[in-house]
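FIELD: query
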Amino acid sequence: MPLHGVLEEAAVRSPDGPAVVQGRTTRTFAALADGVARLSAAVTSVSAPGDRVAFVGDNCLPWVEAYYGVPRAGRVLTFLNQRLAPAELRRALAASGTRVLLGEAGYVDPLRDAVPVALDLAELADRTATTPPVPPAAGTGPNDPAWLLFTSGTTGRPKGAVLTARSLLAAVEATLSGRPVADDDVYLFPFPLCHVAGYNLLVHHRRGRPVVLLPRFEPAAFVAAVAEHRVTTASLAATMLSSLLDHVEGTGAAGALGSLRTIA
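FIELD: result
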């Protein structure tokens, strides 16, 4: 199965079910699948098969569309950490051979001369609105590159790590085996979407369950999102969990977390 197959199956089973929630915006599975197809067409119009297409920015719905839409176009999605300095981002763009850069204008503008094509979110929206739909790319297989992520670079400069559709979907199935998704689960994703933990979106979409997205992790925003959307499960790094516990203890907000059953 290609990555976009995860979403398209969910859109057939539950077209009106919520797929991604950010703030007051909810995207159903059918609407997300449509957005993915449109982004895929836009990417196809400005690149060639196999090209690296990078995204840089805070968590947002177009980032999620790129997760599925860039591989759907037969291109490789390159994850860029928006917290890096422009010089570090330039090195990543050069090392990956990125041809197209997508993302928020504040991050894209300083890098426009580093790639042949750069589209900020407004420009991307214009192109998706005017580009005719295209079918999924032909000739791509499960062992072809789908995502390209950079390591943290703790022992040197970050290195690009290639993930195929087969490896990502194997991780999805392994996670579902060890940490099953319940029929009523609502998952909160507080990490940056440039992190490999983003595969958890695929995990929950595989089961047709919604993902609540934070622009960035903040303990107060985490608590508010859990309370508003009746979140049942989330992922947190140890430092994030520690700051969350400090916030809850300091504000007495434990009652707002009553729906939360599991933390990975």
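FIELD: remark
Residues 55 and 63 are 7 Å apart (CA to CA).
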